[in-house]
Amino acid sequence: MVAVFTLEEVSVRRGQALLLDSVGIEIRAGSCTALVGPSGAGKSTLLRLLNRLGEPTGGRVLLHGRPLPEFDVLALRRRVGLVAQAPTLLTERVLDDLRVGRQELTEDEAAKLLERVGLPDSMLERPTAGLSGGEAQRVCLARTLAVKPEVLLADESTSALDPASTAAVEAVFKQLAADGMTVVLVSHDAAQARRIADEAVVLTAGRLVEHGPVAQVAYLQGDAV
Ligand SMILES: Nc1ncnc2c1ncn2[C@@H]1O[C@H](COP(=O)(O)OP(=O)(O)OP(=O)(O)O)[C@@H](O)[C@H]1O
Questions:
Q1: Does domain 3-220 have CATH number 3.90.930.12?
Q2: Ligand 1 pocket check for 17: Cβ under 6 Å
Q3: 127-132: long-range contacts (C-beta < 8 A, 24 or more apart)?
Q4: For 101-135, what is each residue's pLDDT tens digit?
Q5: Are 129 and 87 contacting, i.e. CB atoms less than 8 angstroms apart?
Q6: Which tens digits make up the pLDDT trace of 47-75?
Q7: What residue spans define the domains of the chain?
Q8: What is the ipTM, given to two decimal places?
Q9: Is the C or the N end of the chain the one with fewer CB within 10 Å?
């Protein structure tokens, strides 16, 4: 197995609270890994360590065997892109938003990015203010992909979307992993994790309780989540 990320005994303590407790996992290259578990389990905390939006207070996170602090943080964040829960558009026009991380992006490339996330190229000239939540989330996803990251992190990226937009975003994640990208997503939805992920990491109260192929992870079986 080629590990993209290796977490060695990773802990995160904030004051009295132990948000992550000695978590050790490897995240396989070219797979879609879902971080699942109950509310407050530490899923977002773990995800944010992977591009240094957060720092462990114990243990180490390695990218291809190198500790994350050895990388330039901005270069790391281009390599490990994050799509947040709520879409945040940064400019007034869709095309300009897609160029935020890559100014030299041509209109052709921008149109291809939109196609990749299931949006028509006619949207390039649209004002960002008029987009629906589902469209805005997919523009954010396209903007992240414009930078050509090696890894895509997604934190509950469909939790505010209607079923049709959720299905569209899920299809994009699946296709990205099928194309060889490493995708790590946080989901509170077991059915979603089963639909799109290859592997699942189950956290409860900051501790790793299971990690394996989705079909073998007990937490994801049945509808009891
Ligand atoms: N700065 C902080 N100080 C103390 N506790 C914190 C801090 N930040 C987060 N927490 C707590 O850490 C726990 C883990 O938070 P985290 O957001 O990682 O969980 P989660 O599994 O993603 O939850 P959810 O599914 O509800 O988003 C929560 O109980 C949260 O309240």
A1: no
A2: yes
A3: 127/92, 127/93, 127/94, 128/89, 128/91, 128/92, 128/93, 128/94, 128/97, 129/89, 129/92, 131/89, 131/94, 132/165
A4: 999 999 999 999 999 998 999 999 999 998 998 89
A5: no
A6: 999 999 999 999 999 999 999 999 999 99
A7: 3-220
A8: 0.91
A9: N
CA distance 99 to 105: 6
For residue 48, how far is its CA from the centre of ligand 1 (angstroms)?
Answer: 11
Testing ligand 1's pocket by substitution, the residue of 44, 159, 192 carrying the most ligand atoms inside 8 A of its CB is 44
Model pTM above 0.90: yes
- Residue whose CA lies nearest to ligand 1 atom number 8: 14
| Atom number, ligand 1, closest to the C-alpha of residue 47 | 18
Q: Which of 54, 55, 49 is nearest to 6 (CA)?
A: 49
